[in-house]
């Protein structure tokens, strides 16, 4: 069985490794938020319950990193509303209520915001969480991120196979006595159609929306992870351009990612359009030849789903087979060793090559696979 001290040490080391650019005060505040002073309780639990508690910490940590940490308060709040508003069961209930109510101009976002505000004002658990987050320290942006992460985790807790937020919405309806769903005919029978069925008169019911809700949840989560990875790549690449190319290149990238045309960027940066096109080619070279191959290959590969180990450089099974057979024997050996997880230095030592030669060969292999992907997409 694990001890509380080993768990604290593991999380502290993990935060230092995954967030080296953040201050020690910030990392300690996140650590305080995650662990919630459960030392004596943790040591008294059996191994199974310890694993459940660790999974809960991991879930909260992933929520924080994916949507809230290092994000502006406005963007973080949008992420929360988009995430909770995407719950299929909740969205359907809200739309039904709005369609039957007097005020049909209200949107799902409006109702979710009202329910969340009511929870923050009256829910004792959330109020206790906000007081605890304040005691953990950190600046206002960090505390705001921790509050939003705690709020999302709390709203998604499953209660009888439905998110807790759904029940909070039902309570909100009961208090909104003038809402449309409460205006039912008093002299007529009302038939309620449930989304749950009991097959063959079995005591256990089956929720017809569970599979659909789970599918939408997984799809939304995958999209949000992609957006988070995209933002990480953009930040890292902009910093790389700032340090290794020029501040002008970093400014061009930020404007380009915002959707500005080359003419609009040239006007904003007050740079001749010909110089800007040369700068674009330079940025493209560094993006493909340097940043994605040497500087941050894992980050880019995870974003594009082109990692060698997990995604076969982004190739389908048939494309990979043709690609692998087209390589020379020494290239196949280098590729196999990279796929096995060996480092550049280990491969160079084993094949009696220089590290620059191995890096050069890997660049050729990567670009050849990229050319196949581009031709397929075209």
Helix/sheet category: mainly alpha
- Tell me, what's the shape? globular
Cα separation of the termini: 54 Å
The total number of structural domains is 3
Largest sheet: 2 strands, antiparallel
The number of strands is 4
Proportion of residues in helical segments: over 70%
Measured by DSSP, the beta-strand proportion falls in under 5%
> Within the largest sheet, what's the order of strands?
1-2
pLDDT averaged over residues:
75
Task: Give the H and E element order.
Answer: HHHHHHHHHEEHEEHHHHHHHHHH
Low-confidence parts: 177-197
| Tally of separate helices | 20
What Rg do the Cα atoms give? 26 Å
InterPro entries: HetZ-rel_2 (IPR048033)
Protein name: HetZ-related protein 2
Question: What tags apply to this protein structure?
Answer:
globular; two-stranded antiparallel ribbon; mainly alpha; two-stranded antiparallel sheet; 378 residues
Describe the overall structure.
The chain is mainly alpha-helical. The protein has 3 domains: 4-180, no CATH class; 218-304, no CATH class; 305-378. 73% of the residues lie in helices and 2% in strands. The protein contains 20 helices and 4 strands. The chain has helices at 4-18, 24-35, 39-43, 47-68, 73-85, 88-100, 108-122, 124-136, 140-155, 164-175, 210-244, 247-257, 262-269, 273-295, 297-304, 308-311, 317-325, 329-339, 344-351, 355-377, and strands at residues 158-159, 162-163, 196-197, 206-207. The strands form 2 sheets. The chain has a two-stranded antiparallel sheet. A hairpin with a 2-residue loop joins strand 1 and strand 2. Helix 4 crosses helix 9 (140-155). The longest helix has 35 residues, at 210-244. The chain starts with a helix and ends with a helix. The relative contact order is 0.06. Mean pLDDT is 75; it is low at 177-197.
